[in-house]
Amino acid sequence: MQTLAQHLSSQGIQAPLAQLLTTLADTSKAISHAVRHGALAGVLGATEQENVQGETQKKLDVITNDMLKEALTADSTVRGLASEEEDHIVEVGQSGDFLVCFDPLDGSSNIDINSLVGTIFSVLPAPQGELSEQSFLQPGRQQVAAGYVLYGPSTMLALTTGQGVQLFTLNPETNEYLLTNEAMSISKDTAEFAINMSNQRFWEAPMQTYIADLLLGKIGPREKSFNMRWIAAMVGDVHRVLSRGGLFTYPTDNKNPEKPYKLRLMYEANPMSFLVEQAGGKASTGYETIMDIQPSEIHQRVAVILGSANEVDACLEYHGQDYSEEPSL
Ligand code: F6P
Ligand code: MN
To answer: Fructose-1-6-bisphosphatase class 1 C-terminal domain spans which residues (predicted)?
Structure first.
């Protein structure tokens, strides 16, 4: 099995990007270690702080953010970073080639129940000149690499540099990432979907109708039975979609009219969309392709519908219809 270093060299990845990906991978090993020690290391539970999005920060959110920030600050290829846990962008160096956006510990509500969590990252080219928030506001299409690390029964790194998606498994004996799937591929069709059903009454008409039709199973217009899964960590749900197909969505809802979307574009939706597209799937808001969105702020949120191409298309058909005459469900 190839190591990550061997793989990056066999793909012809240039030295600066290979160095940055190695930094991210090495830091994820340390995060995996911290996550695995859990209560033994006193890292479970919440802090008294909130992040810029008004969410209470877990101890591990802060610890993992600091670990990534420290490692990326020491990496000469990094010009700046943006994190879910940082209010503002952080300027790192004067000359690095890359900007890194990351969610240090996705699914952090799972921490205290010893369930799946992960790290998500997106690498963008650093533009010339002064660094500002504007430098980060590039469509996902510009990403040069993206990936996630899943801290599950085994620690796995899924990575794309635009040449498909490769999956590495951390060997706990040698602490090395080994290539265990050289081309992750999402089946075009699926009979599995992932959505937080408790928000049903808050969805827009297209999603209401689409999910209602899935639930009708064989007697409904889709004429097949669907299964449902929800891990409550995007990283876990997307990993399942990359592993065995499926449709994952966190759609628009009007639960809180000031916050119609949940997932963040720059360090959740964009990197996951890059991976999904590279594995043959699709990623949309319902109305536009996620990676084509021109971002307007680093903590921007978007609706997300991603996964098996034919199923995403099926869902998008519902979004193209007119519901003005229909009674709401
Ligand atoms: O980062 C946001 C997030 O935790 C995702 O990882 C996950 O998909 C979603 O929120 C879970 O939302 P909910 O708590 O509504 O199930
Ligand atoms: Mn997250």
So the answer is: 186-319
